[in-house]
Amino acid sequence: MTQNTPYNPAKDGAQMSFDGRMSYGDYLGLDKILTAQAPLSDAHDELLFIIQHQTSELWMKLAVHELHAARDLLKEGAYRPAFKMLARVSRIFEQLNSAWDVLRTMTPSDYTRFREDLGQSSGFQSYQYRQIEFMLGNRNGAMLKPHAHREDLTALLTQELAQPSLYDVALQALSAIADLPEEVLNRPSAEAYQPHDAVAAAWTKVYQAPETHWELYELAEKLVDLEDYFRRWRFNHVTTVERVIGFKRGTGGTGGVSYLRRMLEVELFPELWHLRTEL
């Protein structure tokens, strides 16, 4: 009987010695990442809870990175590269949606074993989530307050409120084919966007003749796709919270499910959804 020789990857050229050389773990900073979990209880599911939220924050960091770049490219009229980045943000939110499936394996009994150890910490205080909302146009200056204890975070979010949102930039592009009013194009950037009939008419024009306005048409669909995934993330958040804590108040003091349900009513790009009824 012939004995199989164990595979030796070094014979195929794989690097096996990393003394003084960059390794996979070095490049990714895995020592920092994999030691960043510090459960405060001996509850088995606390590690799941921590990792789920940490990985979500990493995905949100990438979403912020892509949204910044996409917005800058749209300002320059570089539509095609911006479309790729917007599509990537949608896929990021698909990953964030899948994370809820893992968290939902934690039962109410599991969560109660370490919930008190969270203190007042809550996902409501995620500055990256707030930054994404601000970038997409859901702007509310009152939402700076949870970050007031950190001057750097307050400055970051205030800076975001001082510049046009992604939808504002899209509307500037839309103004190339329609006379949009001043209250749309030059509204205070820190305020939440309000739907306008002139914007609805302009987007309807795009959808009635997509072959004539193809880039704007594709931009609109990329925005709808992004909000679609964002809405799913919010919905999965609501159902996960209700499944785990019912209608208790959140650890950060919000109404929990009742607060999250109100967030489901927020429309980021309202005219793009409403025009479908009129076409």
In short:
By secondary structure, this protein is mainly alpha-helical. It has 13 helices and no strands.
Descriptive account of the structure:
It is a single chain. The protein is mostly helical and 279 residues long. It has one domain: Up-down Bundle (Methane Monooxygenase Hydroxylase, Chain G, domain 1). Helices cover 59% and strands 0% of the residues. The chain has 13 helices and no strands. It has helices at residues 24-28, 30-34, 46-76, 79-103, 108-112, 127-136, 151-161, 166-174, 182-185, 197-208, 214-245, 257-263, 270-278. Helix 3 (46-76) runs parallel beside helix 6 (127-136). The longest helix has 32 residues, at 214-245. The chain is globular and about 75 Å long. It starts with 23 loop residues before the first helix and ends with a helix. The mean pLDDT is 91.
Chain-wise SSE layout:
Blueprint: H1 24-28, H2 30-34, H3 46-76, H4 79-103, H5 108-112, H6 127-136, H7 151-161, H8 166-174, H9 182-185, H10 197-208, H11 214-245, H12 257-263, H13 270-278
Helix pairs in contact: 3-4, 3-6, 3-8, 4-11, 6-7, 8-11, 10-13, 11-12
Keywords:
13 helices; mainly alpha; 279 residues; Methane Monooxygenase Hydroxylase, Chain G, domain 1
- The second-level CATH architecture is Up-down Bundle
Low-confidence regions = none
Write down the domain tally.
1
Tell the overall outline. Answer: globular
Distance between the termini: 74 Å
The quaternary structure here is: single chain
The CATH top-level class label: Mainly Alpha
The number of strands is 0
Give me the strand/helix succession.
Answer: HHHHHHHHHHHHH
Give me the secondary-structure category. mainly alpha
Rounded average pLDDT:
91
